[in-house]
Write a structure and sequence with these properties.
This protein is mostly helical. The chain contains 16 helices and 2 strands.
Length: 399
């Protein structure tokens, strides 16, 4: 169990670094429009591509496409893993209270304090009046409330509430899960195909209406309509694995998932190619048109997302169940790094606009500085909160 927990902890740190890399590199992909997107015009596509640099590198297109298709699914799966053990240990009321405080308060502060600072350089990239007051008037006039990466927090709260409701409804919870999930969890291939079937059923109808990069929102509650059901499926797949038990399910260190890690990795690469070839033909308009090509791309996305998640977990269990000082500290500060990183990303990308440097170099500079600055911000914030809490307890106890 210790090695499994260590591998998952390291994987969490790696995933956070990949998210920072994705956001750092996305300004330099070759598929961008030629000019920055207008700040005040619907559909406000700058939410997906905030800063657009004229320096591009096709390698970042491949990297960002690869990460875009599975990384958030993996985040939700990892988030679901420890939900059921936490509910069993703490109970519904305590669990939900802690989750709302841990996710809800940062969501409010992040959305209404941090995101205006983060998106200010996006406005400056196309504005005539660069002042903060001019930006603020444009910001307040928007019919949307851009949340950036903060959307993950409110979505996770909703899923936690649903988990509590499910936990409260199931009688003899552990016995119920053991009886119903043994045949599935003991065979990773069976579990794999069930998740594929459910996620495809959830994704394909919506994919016909919404491309995966489109966002919609109600106030600050933004989400991707085609991918949101997938996130729900992956979260509850993680809940099911965590409820069944790490050592005897798909995460078993001696199980088929770990033993055949190379096959899962090869499968993820093959399914990525199944997505990227029809997608490239659709985007370039150089292939046959029709629903068949779109269906092939959509099926490739569904297959790749789960295959990539499976292979990432298999690789972590096989190779990352070791102590690493760097990954240990990154994982410890993962939440803070995620919370703080976006303003650093966008401001660094903005400051590098027009700088005579290859796109590859710019991406590495943004990534390295973003990791350093957001990591430092997390450490400092944790120190302040810890000392404030100790001071509060000391004064609450003393007369």
């Amino acid at each position: 169990m210790f090695k499994i927990s260590l591998a998952l902890r390291n994987l969490r740190g790696i995933v956070i670094l990949l998210i920072l890399a994705f956001h750092s590199f996305v300004a330099y992909i070759a598929a961008h429009p030629d000019t920055p997107l207008p700040f005040d015009k619907a559909p406000y596509a700058w939410r997906g591509y905030p800063i657009i640099d004229s320096d591009r590198w096709i390698g970042f297109d491949l990297f960002c496409a690869f990460q875009f298709l599975y990384l958030m699914q993996l985040m939700f799966f990892l988030s679901g893993l420890f939900v059921w053990p936490s509910l069993m240990r703490r109970g519904s009321a305590t669990f939900l209270t802690r989750r709302i405080l841990r996710l809800g308060v940062p969501f409010v502060f992040g959305t209404y304090l941090l995101m205006p600072i983060a998106f200010y350089p996006v406005y400056r990239a196309t504005a005539a009046d660069l002042s903060w007051s001019a930006f603020w008037s444009h910001w307040m006039a928007l019919p949307i409330t851009p949340t950036g990466p903060m959307w993950f927090l409110w979505f996770l709260i909703v899923l936690d509430i649903a988990s509590v409701a499910l936990y409260s409804l199931l009688p003899r919870k552990q016995h119920f899960l053991t009886r119903h999930f043994t045949n599935v969890m003991s065979h990773p291939k069976r579990f794999f195909f069930i998740v594929i079937f459910v996620s495809a059923t959830a994704y394909l109808p919506l994919a016909a209406l919404y491309p995966p990069w489109q966002w919609i929102g109600f106030g600050p509650f933004e989400f991707q309509p085609s991918l949101a059901p997938q996130y729900v499926v992956y979260f509850f797949a993680g809940v099911a694995v965590g409820a069944f038990g790490f050592e005897r399910g798909p995460l078993d260190l001696d199980g088929m998932l770990v033993e055949r890690w190379a096959y899962w990795l090869a499968g993820s690469v093959a399914s990525f190619l199944l997505w990227i070839f029809p997608t490239a033909l659709i985007v370039n308009g150089s292939g046959p048109s029709g629903a068949g090509l779109h269906l092939m791309a959509d099926l490739g996305l569904v297959l790749f997302a789960w295959a990539a998640c499976f292979s990432a977990i298999a690789l972590a269990l096989r190779f990352a169940a070791i102590r690493s000082v760097v990954l240990d500290d990154v994982s410890e500060n993962a939440y803070g790094i995620y919370f703080f990183h976006y303003p650093f990303v966008l401001w660094l990308q903005y400051l590098l606009l027009g700088v005579a440097l290859h796109a590859f170099g710019k991406g590495l500079v943004v990534f390295a500085l973003t990791v350093t600055l957001s990591w430092a911000a997390s450490i400092v914030t944790n120190w302040i909160i810890s000392n404030a809490w100790l001071t509060f307890k000391r004064h609450a106890i003393l007369p």
